Amino acid sequence: MLAGISILCFAASYSVALALEVSRLLFRSRLRGALLLGFVGAGLLAHTLFLAHRAATGGATPLSSEFDWYLVAAWVLAATYLYLTIYHSGAAIGLFILPLVLALVAVAEFFASQTPFAQNRASQVWGAIHGVFLMLATVAVLVGFVAGVMYLLQARRLKHKQLPAQGLRLPNLEWLQQLNTRAIVVSAIMLLAGFFSGVILNLVNQRREIDHFPWTDPVVWTSGLLLAWLVGAAMFGVAYRPARQGRKVAYLTVATFLFLVLAIGLRLLLPSKHTPDRPITAQIKSAQVSFPLAAPRPGGLG
Amino acid sequence: MKFQMSGCSHHTAPVDVRGRLAFDPQQARQALSALRKRFPGAEAVVLSTCNRVEIYTAADTPATMPSHQQVAEFLADFHGLRLTDIFEDLFERTGEDVVRHLFHVAASLDSMVVGEPHIVAQIKQAYDISCERESNGPLTNQVFQAALRVAKRVANETSLNEKRVSIPSIAVADFATQIFERFDDKRVLVIGAGEMADETLRYLVDEGARRVVVLNRNFAKAEQLAAQWNGEAAPWTRLEQCLTEADLVVSTTAAGEPIVTRAAFDRIEVARYQRPLFILDLAVPRDFDPAIGECLGVYLYSLDDLRAACDRNRQEREKQWPAALRIVDQETARFMADLNHRATGPIIKRLKQGWQQVKEDELRRLHNKLPDLSDPVRQEIDQSFDRLINKLLHPPLESLRDESEHGIPHALLEAFKRLFQLKD
Predict the structure, then answer these.
(1) Which domains does chain B have, with CATH numbers?
(2) B396-424 burial, b if ≥16 CB within 10 A, otherwise e?
(3) pTM for the whole structure
(4) Is the ipTM of this complex over 0.90?
(5) Closest chain A residue to B174 measured between Cα atoms?
(6) Which of B161, B178, B295 to probe by mutation at the A interface, max A CB count within 10 Å?
(7) 10-residue block means of pLDDT along chain B (424 residues)?
(8) Residue of chain A minimizing CA distance to B297
(9) Is B156–A30 a contact, with Cβ atoms under 8 angstroms apart?
C-alpha cells in the first residue's frame, strides 16, 4: 500500500489546505479549522510515509539526493505549519507558509530526474551532518521570512489603525518578533554548522583523494555569502539594540530569504559540482520503484 | 396555554424608572415567592438587568393567568411605588409575541449595545432563580431553554457579538492584543485618573496586566486609582522616565494642550531603543502630539481613531441583523408549532387509546376462534394489526400536525372529538 503513495498525494493535500486558507478571506465557516487540520495532517502523513518508504526501499539516508533533500525540507516546514496552526488557531499562517511548502515540493520535483549521491559518499557522517544542517538552516530562513512578512503586514495595519480584515487574522507583533529573532539565530547557527561540516567533508575527500569541490563552486560561495549575511545580521543585532526591535528584524529575515532564493537560483542556473549530472529514470516520482542509490557517482551532499 | 410578559426596557422607560423597578437577585427571589402566592396557577420568571425589568408569566388556562394590570400593580406594590407613576413606562407582550420578544432579548437583538454577550448569562441566572424558587413550570422551562438555544445559534451562525463596539474594549481586544503576546510582563502607564482610564484598565487587567503605574497632577487621585488596581502612583515629574519604561500608555488628562510633544518624545525614543509602545490617547484635546505616531515602533491611537473603529464594527453588526432576525423568526415558528402540537397531545392520546382498545378486542376474539395458531403466526397477525392501526392513524395525525403550525387547531380538535366520539 505504501508503494502507491506519490508526491501528488501530499501535494494535493497541501493544495487543498491552501485553498481552505484562501477561503478565509471570502467567508466564515466553523468547519474550516477541522478540515484544515485534517488535510494538513493527511498530507503530512502521506509525506512521512513516502519518505520512510524511500529510505527503507532505497537503503540510504533521506537526504541522499537533492530530490529527498527538498522533500525533507518541505516536510519539516509542513510540520512547523501544523504546530503553528494549532498554537495560533485563528491566524491565517498557512496563507504564507503553504505556498513555500508547495514550492519546495516543486523544486524537489525539478530534481526528481537527477541521480542521487553515491551511497559511499551520502552515507558519510560529515556528508549527512552537512545535509541536515543546511536543510534546517533553509527551513529556519523560510520560517523567518514568513514571520517577517506577517510582521510587516500586521505593523502596517496597526500603524494605519485598521481593524483585522475578514479572515486575515495574523499573530501579534511580539510573538512574530520573537519568531523572527529565533529564526535568524537558528538559521545562522545551522548554516554555520552546515557550512563548516561541508568544508570538513571536502577536506576529508581531498585527503582521501576522492573527488572534491573547488572552493569557487557557486554553491560554496553563495552559501558563504548567506552565512556572512546571517552572522553579520546577528552581530548587528548584538551591537545595535534598535536592530533587535520590530520592523528591523523583519526586514533582516526578508532580506535573508532573498539571499536564499539567490543561492537556490544560482544553484539551478550555474554549473556546480553539487549538481548531479546523470539523470536516472523518471520513476523516482513514485516510491514504488526502488532508488538506485548504490550507483557510484562523483559529487557530494548539498 | 398562554404566555405573557409585562415590564419595561430601555426602549420604553428612562433609566431612573428602570432603576426603581429593578430587582437584585435577592429581591428577585422574594418577588417570585410573592408572585406565586398572589397568582398560584401561573408560572413566573423575573428578568432584571440594567436595561430591562421584565416579568414573564405562563399558565395552561387564561383564568389562572395574571393580567398586565395585575402584574403592574404587583411591581408597584413590591417596590412601594404608585401604579400611576410607572404604568405609562410599562409595556406588555402576549402569546407568540412573548416568545419572539424573549428570543430577541436572548440573542441580544434588543440590547442597548446590540450583540453584547452578557444578556445570555443574565437570562440564565433569572431562569435558575425561578427554578430555585419553584416558580417555573413546563411552559417557562420550554421557552427559556429554547431562548438559550436561540442565543447560542445566533452567536454561532452570525458574527453579531464578535465585533466590539465600546472604545476601551476595541482598544484592548482589537489593537493591544495584536501588538503584545502577553500583558503580565508589560508596564502599563496610566496618565490621568478619569473614568475612561479606569474602564480601559479593567480590560487590560482582564488580559493579565499586573504592572500598573498611575501618573496624575493630583497625586492623591493617582494613589487612589493605583490602589484600586494594585498599581503604584508616580509624581508628575517622572513623566518622561515612566514613558521610557512603559510598554502601554493610557492617557486621559484634561490638559488644554499636548502633554508630550514630538521634541520631548524624540529624547524618550532614543532611551527606549525603539521598543514597541502602544499609546491610547483618550483625551480631548489630545495629550500626545500626533507626529509621535510616525516614530518607529510607536502605535498611537486617538479617541477619533477608536471611534472610527467602533463605527465600522457597529456597521458590521448591522449587516448581521437580518440573518439574526431570520433565526429568531424560524425558531419562534418552530417553538410555537411544537407548543401547539403539544396542545393536541391529549386528543391524540385518547384517539390512539381508543383504536388500540378496538385492536386488542379484535385480536383477542380472533385468537380465541383460532386457538391452534403457532406463535410465529400469532406474532405476524399482531404486527399486521399494529401496522394497520398506524397506517389508519397517520393521515389524521399528519393533518393535526400541519394545522398546529398555524396555532392550536381548535376546530379540527373539535371535529376529532365529534367524529371519533372522544370524551373529555
Answers:
(1) 2-160 (3.30.460.30), 167-315 (3.40.50.720), 337-419 (no CATH)
(2) bbeebeebbeeebbeebbeebeeeeebee
(3) 0.68
(4) no
(5) A163
(6) B178
(7) 89 88 93 93 92 92 90 95 93 94 93 80 94 93 95 89 78 89 94 84 90 92 90 93 95 88 91 89 89 92 85 83 93 89 79 88 90 89 91 86 76 82 72
(8) A246
(9) yes
